[in-house]
Known about the structure:
The protein is built from 23 helices and no strands. With about 425 residues, it is mainly alpha-helical. The chain has one domain (about 45-430). Helix 7 runs parallel beside helix 20 (about 385-395).
Amino acid sequence: MSTTVIATLILLGLFLALVFLRVPIVYAIGIASLADFIYLGINPMQMALKFISNLNSYTLLAVPFFILMGELMSAGGITATLIDFSKELVGWFRGGAAMVNVVSSFFFGGISGSSSADCASLGPIEIQMMEEQGYDRDFSTCLTMASSVEGILVPPSQNMVIYTLAAAGVTSVSIGQLFLAGYVPGVILSVVLMIYSYYVSVKKNYPVTGRFNPRACVRTFFKAIWGMLSVLFVVVGVITGVFTTTESAACAVVWSLVVGLFIYKGFTVKDLPEIFHNVTMTLGKVLILLGVSGAFTYLLTYLKVPSMVSEALFSITDNKILILIMLNLLMLFLGCLIEMACLILMLTPVILPIWMSLGLSPIHLGVVMVLNLGIGLLTPPVGSTLFIGSAISGIKIEKLAKTMIPFYAVMGIALLILTYFPQTFMWLPNMAI
Length: 433
């Protein structure tokens, strides 16, 4: 057995073994990488250099700003205004409370950029609202978790920024185009969830409440628009070239601060230290993960793992449809075991060359990967959104995972649409070329 094969087995085998032993993901990556550096006879100082170089990126500065923007808007009172607007917009349909849940997540996701933040912020309100209208607690919680995945598709999304960094070693990816590419997939996921919610509502005879009131809809829209304008600083600024991604994110933070303090008045200056503390804790985890992943991805490239995976897939079949199925299954499986940001960093250098060899766009892969790994956030054993849903609802994870099965199938339909019919959403980023 060659040195390259043994080194690859050490790297991947030790990493997966540590993950299954519930070792924190950062330590699992670091230990596996260090062991491989030592086996290959590479100076371990190279690992430290890769750690630092992976963080030495101007674009990466956008990530803390996005996290801070989400924290400020969550604390600022945007949640209630978005739910009120969503009620007036779709609350009068059959199963209106369920549709309000989905639409609220779409709007809030554009602000928070996080599935976990969406579920934690909107979840308690949405679940109570649905229960008051006769919905089962299990169904309400599962819908809340499923709709929260819209938050990582709809821009601005820090996971999409991380994807552009991970893809940089293979090809250049426009963050502006990637942001634009997320809107229609977010809508597609919302639509399939709303269709399923309507089906369940008819089947269980959930009530129709209220009537459509255009005036109330317009009034709540103008109340909610102050929070949603923060997204315009990011998306419009980047696409038009007025701002870089980092500059637009910084402007969005300033706007979010003004809105939270003076318009919605959801927090005061005294609350800012706690908000910054929460941001620092989250950012610390993300940056350490990004750093150690730099050494791991360096070893993947050094050992030519992308080429090995590509040759293995094409030795099985050269059918494009089957290869895409296998890649999706790989992402779904690993998404059940490993945190999202880490997987984006590890999988992108491996999958992107294969994806492009099929004649597909790297932006297309970014959207499909984010949705795949977003579904992983809802699955045991490490799905963070699943744990949050369990915590806010009081339902055991085992029971929630079982109730989620129909939602996995529904989200799978959205995934298949995005995988095999990229023209459904790629027209929007292509307009920005």
